């Protein structure tokens, strides 16, 4: 009745009753991933790519603890998820029973809310509340723990039991006050160098944001979570800001006199040294979560409200006044265009070596920037953020706040379930890919159009980059190949794919890349492409951790 017909569930002793019931459901389909972490990241990919609630189910003990990384990830990236776990029977709770973990306690600080159900008649209300909590206000994960004896009880459910969340509902933000919106527009009118700093909070307001930019002409930079919320190929787009953001985005924020921070949280990977971030600007912060306002950076004007309603309100006000007054940020736009020409994203080429950035550019071109992209975590994630064109919200799926390796493949599969028929590409690193490589089984069994695009440098690339920069290039367990035979690629992903019955190829020469990617995209169903790239390549530009705009590194690598 809550509108979700897809679940990601892996059975075990304490959740068997749930699985038995699922087999009798005419509407709910289960997608059997091969690890609870995989299923939970799939629920996250499903939710991120559709805006609906992702649902995962696991058994007690190790099944439940395997959900922990995905719950933490969903909390940090504000992803609506409901995790349902089996628990040992009520009389055995607290006795160190077989496969018992106090999962409510374990997950308390990494969920938005959680429940231990102690009465079978509470189930309809609790599940309804869980979905409401997960998807309202600032979205997040909710866990529902159900002991096995309660699952086994007979009950006549009362489906329309009212929710009991008076405090939460009373605290949900009200629509933004018109006076505050008028004040923001006044600040825009007074500014010469405004910048929009847009994050994951704008995922549901892409159209309103585009309309606002159309009417004001303010340049836009997005966070890693905000990619696609404003089209990155738009002339007013500055692409991503922060540690590995573009020079021109970070320049714009550094020189801005007004920073419009919409649906963002001033994360350390964006701001670097917080005192130096946007130090010349007045800051307007709009966020649905009161806890984020003033947490890291004090705003001059703050509005605690849904950014969609705030943008709609400002657009309505602008439509009323356009006849009398237009904004002219021409000189500022020209200054930033000059920066774009002077400091474009770029990389060096070396004969037939495949530059990872080049491989992603070819992928972008051959998919016309239309594919849904999921990633692991590391260098490949940053290159995917920099070199692929994101045109719409929910097109980019990445573990941003938690930075969980192994996210890419299961998240891509979850997105394929939520968006039937759409090509989904998992741009992955060899390290991240191996963390949930078992989910090749699911994409084969369900024949999902998930293309695994591995940028394989045989190393933990981002850690290697830090070793090169800050640790005198001393390799500390960052080589992932076979030390006895370094000339051979290890492991052999093409052979592994064969074991899962997935077509696969390896490419080692730049001249073969285009044809290989074309073949990958033309092959129906799943495909694995192993692209061998040099380990010396660094993600640039780079502002070192805790640094400021002036500390930006523009060149150099591990060569």
UniProtKB/TrEMBL annotation:
<keyword id="KW-0479">Metal-binding</keyword>
<dbReference type="GO" id="GO:0009099">
    <property type="term" value="P:L-valine biosynthetic process"/>
</dbReference>
<dbReference type="InterPro" id="IPR012000">
    <property type="entry name" value="Thiamin_PyroP_enz_cen_dom"/>
</dbReference>
<dbReference type="InterPro" id="IPR011766">
    <property type="entry name" value="TPP_enzyme_TPP-bd"/>
</dbReference>
<dbReference type="GO" id="GO:0030976">
    <property type="term" value="F:thiamine pyrophosphate binding"/>
</dbReference>
<comment type="pathway">
    <text>Amino-acid biosynthesis; L-isoleucine biosynthesis; L-isoleucine from 2-oxobutanoate: step 1/4.</text>
</comment>
<dbReference type="Pfam" id="PF00205">
    <property type="entry name" value="TPP_enzyme_M"/>
</dbReference>
<keyword id="KW-0274">FAD</keyword>
<dbReference type="InterPro" id="IPR012846">
    <property type="entry name" value="Acetolactate_synth_lsu"/>
</dbReference>
<dbReference type="InterPro" id="IPR045229">
    <property type="entry name" value="TPP_enz"/>
</dbReference>
<feature type="domain" description="Thiamine pyrophosphate enzyme N-terminal TPP-binding">
    <location>
        <begin position="4"/>
        <end position="100"/>
    </location>
</feature>
<dbReference type="GO" id="GO:0000287">
    <property type="term" value="F:magnesium ion binding"/>
</dbReference>
<keyword id="KW-0028">Amino-acid biosynthesis</keyword>
<dbReference type="GO" id="GO:0009097">
    <property type="term" value="P:isoleucine biosynthetic process"/>
</dbReference>
<keyword id="KW-0285">Flavoprotein</keyword>
<dbReference type="InterPro" id="IPR012001">
    <property type="entry name" value="Thiamin_PyroP_enz_TPP-bd_dom"/>
</dbReference>
<dbReference type="InterPro" id="IPR039368">
    <property type="entry name" value="AHAS_TPP"/>
</dbReference>
<comment type="similarity">
    <text>Belongs to the TPP enzyme family.</text>
</comment>
<dbReference type="GO" id="GO:0050660">
    <property type="term" value="F:flavin adenine dinucleotide binding"/>
</dbReference>
<keyword id="KW-0100">Branched-chain amino acid biosynthesis</keyword>
<keyword id="KW-0359">Herbicide resistance</keyword>
<keyword id="KW-0460">Magnesium</keyword>
<dbReference type="GO" id="GO:0009635">
    <property type="term" value="P:response to herbicide"/>
</dbReference>
<protein>
    <recommendedName>
        <fullName>Acetolactate synthase</fullName>
        <ecNumber>2.2.1.6</ecNumber>
    </recommendedName>
</protein>
<feature type="domain" description="Thiamine pyrophosphate enzyme TPP-binding">
    <location>
        <begin position="376"/>
        <end position="531"/>
    </location>
</feature>
<dbReference type="GO" id="GO:0005948">
    <property type="term" value="C:acetolactate synthase complex"/>
</dbReference>
<dbReference type="Pfam" id="PF02775">
    <property type="entry name" value="TPP_enzyme_C"/>
</dbReference>
<dbReference type="Pfam" id="PF02776">
    <property type="entry name" value="TPP_enzyme_N"/>
</dbReference>
<dbReference type="InterPro" id="IPR029035">
    <property type="entry name" value="DHS-like_NAD/FAD-binding_dom"/>
</dbReference>
<dbReference type="InterPro" id="IPR029061">
    <property type="entry name" value="THDP-binding"/>
</dbReference>
<keyword id="KW-0786">Thiamine pyrophosphate</keyword>
<feature type="domain" description="Thiamine pyrophosphate enzyme central">
    <location>
        <begin position="181"/>
        <end position="312"/>
    </location>
</feature>
<comment type="pathway">
    <text>Amino-acid biosynthesis; L-valine biosynthesis; L-valine from pyruvate: step 1/4.</text>
</comment>
<dbReference type="GO" id="GO:0003984">
    <property type="term" value="F:acetolactate synthase activity"/>
</dbReference>
<keyword id="KW-0808">Transferase</keyword>
């Amino acid at each position: 009745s809550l509108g979700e017909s897809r679940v990601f569930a892996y059975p075990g002793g304490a959740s068997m009753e749930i699985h038995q019931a699922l087999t009798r459901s005419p509407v709910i389909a289960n997608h059997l991933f091969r690890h609870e972490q995989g299923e939970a990241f799939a629920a996250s990919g499903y939710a991120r790519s559709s805006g609906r609630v992702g649902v995962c189910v696991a058994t007690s003990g190790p099944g439940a603890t395997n959900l922990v990384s995905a719950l933490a990830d969903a909390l940090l990236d504000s992803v609506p998820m409901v995790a349902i776990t089996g628990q040992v029977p009520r009389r055995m709770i607290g006795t160190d029973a077989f496969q018992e973990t106090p999962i409510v306690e374990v997950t308390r600080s990494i969920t938005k809310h959680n429940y231990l159900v102690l009465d079978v008649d509470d189930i309809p209300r609790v599940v309804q509340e869980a979905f409401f909590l997960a998807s309202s206000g600032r979205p997040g994960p909710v866990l529902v723990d159900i002991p096995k004896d309660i699952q086994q009880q007979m009950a006549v459910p009362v489906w329309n039991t009212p929710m009991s969340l008076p405090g939460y509902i009373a605290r949900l933000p009200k629509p933004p006050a018109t006076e505050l919106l008028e004040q923001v527009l006044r600040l825009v009118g007074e500014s010469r160098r405004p910048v929009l700093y847009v994050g994951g909070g704008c995922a549901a307001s892409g159209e309103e944001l585009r309309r606002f930019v159309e009417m004001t002409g303010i340049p836009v930079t997005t966070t890693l979570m905000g990619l696609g919320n404003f089209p990155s190929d738009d002339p007013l787009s500055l692409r991503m800001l922060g540690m590995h953001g573009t020079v021109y985005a970070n320049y714009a924020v550094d020189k801005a006199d007004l920073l419009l921070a919409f649906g963002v949280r001033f994360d350390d990977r964006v701001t670097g040294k917080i005192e130096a971030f946007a130090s010349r600007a007045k800051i307007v912060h709009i966020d649905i979560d009161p806890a984020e306002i003033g947490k890291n950076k004090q705003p001059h004007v703050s509005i605690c409200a849904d950014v969609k309603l705030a943008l709609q309100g400002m657009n309505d006000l602008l439509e009323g006044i356009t006849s009398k007054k237009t904004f002219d940020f021409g000189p500022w736009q020209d200054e930033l265009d000059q920066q774009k020409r002077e400091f474009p994203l770029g990389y060096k080429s070396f004969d037939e070596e495949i530059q990872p950035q080049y491989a992603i550019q070819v992928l972008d071109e051959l998919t016309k920037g239309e594919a849904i992209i999921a990633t692991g975590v590391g260098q490949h994630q940053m290159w995917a953020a920099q070199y692929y064109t994101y045109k719409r919200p929910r097109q980019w799926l990445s573990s941003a706040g938690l930075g969980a390796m192994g996210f890419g493949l299961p998240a891509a599969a979850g997105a394929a379930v939520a968006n039937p028929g759409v090509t989904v590409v998992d741009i992955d690193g060899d390290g991240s890919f191996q963390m949930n490589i078992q989910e090749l089984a699911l994409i084969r069994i369900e024949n999902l159009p998930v293309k695994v695009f591995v940028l394989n440098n045989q190393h933990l690339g981002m850690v290697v980059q830090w070793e090169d920069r800050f640790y005198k290039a001393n390799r500390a367990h960052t080589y992932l190949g076979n030390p006895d035979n370094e000339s051979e690629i290890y492991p052999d992903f093409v052979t592994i794919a064969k074991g899962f019955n997935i077509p696969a190829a390896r490419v080692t020469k730049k001249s073969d890349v285009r044809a290989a990617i074309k073949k990958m995209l033309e092959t129906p169903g799943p495909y694995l492409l192993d692209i061998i790239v040099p380990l010396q390549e660094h993600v640039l530009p780079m502002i070192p951790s805790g640094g400021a705009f002036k500390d930006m590194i523009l060149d150099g690598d591990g060569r």
